[in-house]
Amino acid sequence: MHTEAEVEEGLTDADVQHLSRFQDLSQEWLDRIAHLAGRNQLIVDHYLSNREKYGPTLVFAINVAHAALLKAELVERGVRAEYVASYRPDDTQVAPSEAIQALRDGELDVLVNVEMVTEGVDVPGIRTVFLARPTSSEILMRQMIGRALRGPAAGGTEHAYLVSFEDHWKHYTEWESPFDLVPDILIEAERPEAKPEEPLVDDGTADELPAALVDAMPWDMVVGAARELRRLRGEAPLLAFEAVPHGWYVIEDEGDDERAPYRHIVPFYAHQVTSWEAALDHVWGAPLEVAKSLTTADLDEFFFDCDDPRPSIRDVELVVEHRARGGERPEPTAFRDRDQSDPQMLAKRILEGDLRRTEEIELVASSYDRLARAIYPTQQLFAEAVDAAVRSLRYPQDRIVMPKA
Predict the structure, then answer these.
(1) First and final C-alpha spacing in the chain
(2) Residue 334 φ/ψ, nearest 5 degrees
(3) 312-349 pLDDT tens trace
(4) 201 within a domain of the structure (yes/no)
(5) String of b and e for 104-139 (b: at least 16 CB within 10 Å)?
(6) Residue 81: which domain range?
(7) Which among 189, 187, 103 is positioned nearest to 152, based on CA atoms?
(8) pTM beyond 0.70, yes or no
């Protein structure tokens, strides 16, 4: 659904700098879009024109103000609507769990939310998802449309509707299209064994990469970086694996009647650990009341001399927000299974074990797991990366030294 909304009007230098640095819209820019009356009216009108067909509908709003505005306009037009967000500007109390239950029970027609029903929350029976916010994040897009495209075997509906409200962009067009992601998400949704995400637990005994972790990692960042490395470095496909993080922090809260539960995966690379640990020591070393006033700018000093890639501003924001809510300090978890798919590590095994060609082929095939597939779309690309790693170890004098990601 094309809104024809001129979302670049009022653009400032600060907005442009924020987009260039973080590949996302600034809060000020998002707020301007949220308050575009014509855009909001179109969203409401489109729902009302298709009310019977769309059935139970989940709307993903831009921010809290946008959610409140859409809910108010829907209610004014006779729709049973509510919204859930991390806070409510009118200080009213609506427990997210109760609102979600009301949608499940048919007491609500529409539930508007702000990034609170993207992952880890089961809302069966949704027939329609409205995407009323632009996003450059593939993983966020997957989470949003996955709320509707679950399939009957996974507790979803037989037919689902996905409505993306697309604005008029003159200069900035790099936003994820939900329809590019539908085919493979449908395949996942149709699997009878599809289950809600399992807790991310690393007790040190697991031999294989937990499926839930692969699904939860920010693959928009990982895959995007891998593609860029392949593009920039041409004949060095093995370096694409550098996009895979070396570990992660889990930021989570079980929530309560007033707060929705959340879980975020914050990845890190080996060269970032010192900076992250110093920043976390600072944030959790401060009294809670002091920590509540911290901003991402207060942590710039810890990442100033960190080599690229640096942590994203969004990851730093998540940490600051988590601390402000009284959350526990996250501890780093090493990505132990990373080596099992690393072309460099496989090349070492091939040479040290003096493997025959048939054994080498078998090793590559057995190592082409979920992680490898996320970086190398085909097994042939993965095999080429391993071959390149073998050559670089056999002939180190001919290796082209390139800066790592």
Answers:
(1) 38
(2) -75, 145
(3) 787 888 899 999 989 999 988 777 667 788 888 899 99
(4) no
(5) beeebbbbbbbbbbbbbbebeebbbbbbbbbbbbbb
(6) 2-189
(7) 189
(8) no
